[in-house]
Write a structure and sequence with these properties.
The structure holds 2 protein chains of 2 kinds. Chain A is an alpha/beta fold. Chain A has 10 helices and 13 strands. The mean pLDDT of chain B is 90. The chains are: A alpha/beta, B mainly alpha.
Chain lengths: 316, 243
């Protein structure tokens, strides 16, 4: 597997007002993304996720640092990089005045997809995203989930080997979010490298091969989900959950924490008092536990939606 | 690279024309507005209607190109779709040129319609067509650049209309559309000489009345300079606005 993204010391600072110290949005991050993986950027709002995507896609100039995408240097070859990446911004930003079909055609025109290919690909994308019936519907008239789907379709229309998705499921209903996760999983199956940002722990856990946790512009952890979890576990405690039957009156569930599994079970059994044990589970730490442990932040910070930025208003 | 830029420019213009320009409200604004003004003036001062034709044409180019152009970029920036163009493999000057081309195409189409109407009424035996083509083209470039500059200079859509009118209306009264620049007080003449519309009206008048190239070159040259300056200013402002 080869490296699709390599980032070294990438930094973005914004001057606030004259005299004051500049705001550091992204603070010297390093990471690399391998070909074909789904790489997640997880962090609370304002952590620097979008700024990172904006720098890697040429919308914003890094203050310092270096990035190589698809073997091309960001500072020198942006025009060539742009041809080979697909970007799905946080808001579905296709043209209200054009139909679903025409939006896809325009996306391909911009990227120089040959005329003979455009129509066929547009039909195929509509089919794939279950939008064939909406072919001639204006973008403005589509539901939020459909808009999202079409925006992703437009980003894939020039068949880029690397796709950036900024908060793909934010503000979507349950069904649309589920469809979208399937789409992302399918992209991985097709060998497309996916870089996504999210502030949903569960989403990162389900979709991503590896996760970078970013807080206040810095990467505080970077590993596969299972490694992040086992690291959290080895350093911490074990939790065992035991359910007892109380005869007529039902069940009682107890959680016991200890240094190791054996002690935890023995402690739990000592609390049985002759009742029958119905089930016993060792609880692995969730990504949420990992997150709380690594960042010192409560997991709830991830649920705070951006204020004043129309669109995202769904809960976690 | 150049191929990407040219292709992008063409499709951006085409998309803008389809999505924004050739829509009823814009068409009526582009055509009716100059007609209404000229009609009002003609009713007040019936006389040589023929002498109003160059002004009518210049106004039509001005409003036809700049009305929508002044809104397009700020509108797309507000709703986020400008980002799509910025992400595409097209350099910023070409992106802006695509926007310009949309405004120019619409403005020139509308003006051509007005020109045909005017010529069918007043006849056009004296018309110098090459001069006319150059005058219209350079006027459209200058006014489209003006519109683009307005669009990148403001932050809200409604501000664009305000700023555009703040520039266009004084031009309309000082630029020789209704009254010739020579009849203005000296200090107003100085201001008039700073306005692109003045040169547009002069060049168009010369083209319609078989004027001499010696004087028209100067008008065309000024329109070209205005175009270049306004376009550069628009590009510089847009580049700074991003990031």
């Amino acid at each position: 597997m080869s490296e699709v993204i390599r980032v070294e010391g990438l930094t973005k600072t914004y001057p606030l007002s004259k005299g004051s110290t500049p705001l550091v949005a992204v603070d010297g991050i390093d990471f690399s993304v391998q070909e074909g993986e789904v790489f997640g950027f997880l962090g609370p709002n304002g952590a620097g996720k979008t700024t990172t995507i904006r720098m890697l896609t040429g919308l914003s100039r890094p203050t310092s640092g270096r990035a190589v995408l698809l073997g091309l240097d960001l500072s020198r070859d942006m025009a060539r990089i742009k041809k080979r990446i697909g970007v799905v911004p946080e808001t579905s930003n296709l043209y209200d005045e054009l139909t679903a079909f025409d939006n896809l055609i325009f996306a391909m025109q911009l990227y120089g997809v040959p005329r003979s290919e455009r129509k066929r690909r547009a039909e195929a994308l509509l089919e794939r995203f279950r939008l064939s019936e909406k072919r001639n519907t204006l973008f403005a008239k589509l539901s939020r989930g459909m808009k999202r789907a079409l925006t992703i379709a437009a980003a894939l229309a020039h068949q880029p080997p690397l796709v950036f998705l900024d908060e793909p499921t934010t503000g979507l209903d349950v069904m649309s979010a589920r469809n979208l996760r399937q789409t992302i999983a399918r992209l991985r199956d097709e060998g497309v490298t996916v870089f996504l940002t999210t502030h949903y722990l569960e989403e990162a856990e389900r979709l991503c091969d590896r996760i970078a946790i970013i807080v206040k512009g810095r990467i505080v952890a970077l590993d596969s989900v299972s490694n992040l979890k086992s690291n959290a576990q080895s350093a911490g405690t074990v939790t065992v959950e035991i359910t007892f039957s109380d005869g007529e009156s039902g069940v009682e569930t107890r959680r016991v924490e200890a240094q190791d599994v054996e002690t935890a079970i023995q402690t739990a059994l000592a609390q049985a008092n002759g009742r029958q044990m119905v089930s016993i589970n060792t609880l692995r730490p969730s990504l949420e536990d990992v997150f709380v442990k690594l960042t010192g932040l409560k997991a709830e910070v991830m649920l705070v939606e951006k204020g004043g930025k129309g669109g995202g208003n769904a809960g976690g | 690279m150049l191929v990407d830029d040219l292709r992008g420019m063409f499709y951006i213009a085409l998309k803008d024309l389809r999505a924004y320009y050739f829509k009823p409200p814009n068409i009526s604004w582009g055509i009716l507005f100059p007609f209404a003004f000229i009609l009002a003036f003609a009713i007040r001062n019936p006389g040589d209607l023929r002498s109003l034709v160059p002004g009518l044409l210049a106004l039509t180019v001005l409003f036809g190109t700049s009305s929508m152009e002044a809104i397009v970029i700020v509108f797309e920036r507000r709703i986020g779709s400008l980002e799509r163009l910025l992400l595409a493999p097209i350099r910023l000057p070409a992106l802006l040129a695509g926007k310009l081309l949309g405004g120019m195409t619409f403005g020139l189409t509308v003006t051509l319609a007005v020109l045909l109407i005017a010529l069918s009424i007043f006849g056009g035996t004296e018309t110098n067509w090459l001069m006319m083509a150059l005058a219209l083209l350079l006027s459209a470039t200058a006014f489209s650049s003006l519109g683009a500059f307005v669009s990148v200079a403001v932050r809200e859509v409604f501000e664009a209309q305000t700023l555009a009118n703040f520039i266009r209306f004084p031009m309309m009264f000082l630029g020789g559309v209704f009254v010739s620049v020579d009849s203005l007080p000296a200090w107003l003449q100085v201001i008039a000489r700073l306005l692109p519309l003045t040169y547009s009206v002069e060049a168009l008048r010369a083209a319609l009345t078989g004027g001499r190239w010696e004087t028209v070159w100067l008008d065309l040259g000024f329109l070209a300079i205005f175009s270049l300056c306004l376009y550069s200013l628009a590009e510089y402002t847009l580049a700074r606005r991003l990031d």
